[in-house]
Structure prediction request, 719 residues.
Amino acid sequence: MTLNAYLILSTLLFCIGLIGVMRRKNVLMLFFSTEIMLNAVNIGFAAISKFHGDLSGQMFAFFIIAVAAAEVAIGLGLLILWYKRTGSINLDDIQGMKG
Amino acid sequence: MEKYIYIALFAPLVGSLVAALFSMQPKTVFTGWFTSFMLAVSMFASLNLLHFVYTTDTVLHTKLFDWIVIGSLDIPFGFVVDQVSVVMMSVVTVVSTMVHIHSIGYMEHDKGFNRYFSYLSAFVFSMLVLVMSDNFAVLFIGWEGVGVCSWLLIGFWYHKDSASWAANEAFIMNRVGDLGLLLGMFLLYWNLGTLQYNEVFATIGTLDNSLLVWIGGLLFLGAMGKSAQFPLHTWLADAMEGPTPVSALIHAATMVTAGVYLVVRSNELYTLVPEVGYAIAALGAFVAIFAATMALVNNDMKRIIAYSTLSQLGYMFVAAGLGAYWVALFHLATHAFFKSVLFLGAGNVMHAMNDELDIRKMGGLHNKMKATSIIMLIASLALAGIFPLAGFFSKDKILESAFNADAYILWGVLWVTAGLTAFYSFRLVFKIFFGKQNYSDADFHPHEAKSFVIAAMIPLAILAVIAGWFEHSFIDFVTKTLPTWEASNTASSTIWILILVTTAVAVGGIALAYVKYYKGDGFSKEWENNAIYKLLINQYYIPAFYDKFISKPYYAISVWIFKMIEVKIIDNAIDGIAHIIFNAGAKVRPIQSGNLSTSLRLMVGGLIMGLVFALVLAVL
Prediction:
């Protein structure tokens, strides 16, 4: 497969994730969508790293996986707390910032 | 000696500032006596300077600080005490001190007692800045300072519409004159590069004649505004709305003579352009008779004296215009004494009569207030120019100067005016103090003013009598800075005839007033239907003319501009901008809904826009 095919896959996945972020109302689904976007980026990094024979891209991919794991851990923790407090994880119910 | 200059100048300012501290408080007699004391200190310092300059013939120069130094423009805040300014200082401080003391009695029951003294002392300070300055710029500061204080004091009873109207009228009329003064100063600076008197007058001969005519004319325009010469004269009579001691100090003795002082100070300039001087003299003679005729028929005590002031200012300008500068200054000084005391006497009468001003409702007050009556009689005799009082010497010299310059028409006008002056002065005195009592004892209880008030008037009354006797030493003194002038053209026998003729017309005026108002009951009522009487009582319809052809059209134009330009263009433009911003805000308000989903979408939208923008830039 050519580099282009990987990049197209990466772009498609990123768009799916982005649409998910925009359309979904369930905060859990938002997390999934962001994971998809992060991993779409990872695919791009890994493919370009392989293409150029430079390992730093793949190292960056690992960093992103680690950061994503940390983010999910904290995010899910907050989400559970939020669910316990309000009984809903619908995005439209979270209006605390309304002026 | 320098310290005396500063004491003379700043003592009134200290008094004013101290009185200002109490201005919001109810009457405290302390402020009155303190400001009077400070004025007395200033008077003492001025008289000391007078004595010093008189005995040693030194001109004192002092520089307080550099005021404006930009490039080649160097204007120091400097003062000069020479023969002219020291005479002015002495006159100003002597009259001011007496007026301050008189005011303590006059303003006794006024709520704004402390405020009044603060303003009055601030006025004296400004006036001293005006006369002591050694350049035109600082003179202009004093000039504006006295204008502001005059505005404050005319409108002192600001709750009265007429008072605030008169204050504004005086201020606005003076703006017209001040524009002329400023333009004259600009021309001087432009062509000579300096505003210092000594430098200006040393080099002024190098300018060409038409320029000098312009400068002389413009400076005189300033003098016309301050000294209320025709056609800027209407404010002076209306300025009588202020407290009476203010009229005595500002609108008789000091501020209105600033214009004469300016012409006298610029004598080198006016000597070079005799045609301007002659125009000044002609205008002065016109104002003299013009104002005197209005004083003939007026029934308002203060206005009669105001018109008389106007008329005497006209006399001074005749002398100054014809090159007899020391004569103008001499009449300025003697006039300051007798006119201020006349006004102060009018203040006493007003107090006695519950602020009544109409002389038709007075009469027979001599028995009730003897001291005021005698003092006003002396002042009126001095004003009429009866030997041996002060007015005789100075007024006679002015008539001589007109005769000597072969200006027989001017002489004739002034001669007639001398008769009119005597008549209206004594009409005033007889109507107030003698003749039939025209008020009922039930309504009014006239009483003499307090003794310290009378005591304050006595020095001025004495000066009104004796000031003329010092004519020769005065001439010797001031002609050290001013050009000498004597009636060289006229034989001494002619001068004696002139003196006789002038005295005769003055005595004739007094006699007519005596017959008509002391013995008789004035002119018959039919006179009041006379066209001339109507013309005079309406002040030649000039206020009406100004109202109709200047104020009203100006107001109409202002209203039109307000409606068309202010509201429709300026207001609409500003409102329009505000509306656009407000509407834009309303439109974008939904962004801040607080809904995370919406925010995310907007964020994505922004991101895409940013990307597109970057792409476009990259392609371009």
Observations:
- The first helix of chain B runs from residue 2 to 21.
- The first strand of chain B starts at residue 60 and ends at 70.
- The CA atoms of residues 518 and 583 of chain B lie 81 Å apart.
